[in-house]
Amino acid sequence: MSKVRVRILLGAFVGALLLAGIGGCAGYSPQGLQPGATEAEVIRHMGPPTGRYTQPSGKTRLEFARGPAGYETFMVNFEPDGRMIDWEQVMDLWYLTRIEPGLGVDEVLLRVGHPVRTQKFPRQGIEVWSYRYPTNDCLWFQISIGDDGKVISGGQGIDPRCDPGDLRGSGHGR
Hints:
By secondary structure, the chain is of the alpha+beta class.
């Protein structure tokens, strides 16, 4: 068999493995996971979580942020016994606009996870958390948090990645 033919067959085999989810990479989304799956099964499918939140009820929520730009964040919810209840993709304007003034940072993290970028403004006494979400416009959602750890405001803004002259949007954060 020629070297070219061996490479083509090897490439096809590796591609088939990746499509089947057998390769060394973690899964990309919780699709296919069923309620009742264990936390270990979810982590095996999704990879290591980017956040873990324990609620007063004893339930746990795992955060799985995806991609370098942060356009997807899956929150997977578990009963106190460690069995999966459900999952949500929270990088969506519907979830982000429900972050209201007065919420604490722990509640923000529980609802929408870690921001793709943070920026401190000491003179104003605020920190701005920025979240990218799937949109056809070049926008992101920003949440202003006061020195007391409470949300002051939130809203959409122009994503600096859309301005080629603005280097702030390249490579910062996750």
